[in-house]
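Hi there, hope your week has been kind to you so far. Please have a think about how the structure follows from the sequence. I've dropped the whole record in just underneath, so have a look:

_____
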Amino acid sequence: MTCWERCPAPNRASFTRSRPAHAADHEEFVVVRTDFAERAALLEEDPETFFVTPHYENYPGVIVRLATVRPDQLRELLTEGWRLVAPRRLVRELDQA
């Protein structure tokens, strides 16, 4: 996850403070881990909500504009992104819950 405002760091994940060049000061974004195929589909589906900057072109993730993403879609993206990096044991526990 990347935050453009001050972010708490509850674990060892790395956080970055930066803002896309075309973003307004009041906009909020989050970078969500995806695979490249999913990212391509999101970019094509809704380029106002999903985009990448040159900094993230080679990173398996997508920048999400929080003002325009549907809450259910964001929840699914965050869950799937977590599954890509979470220990298998935790993924199994979530699947069994």
About this structure: Confidence is low (pLDDT under 50) at residues 1-18. The radius of gyration is 14 Å. The chain has one domain: 29-96.
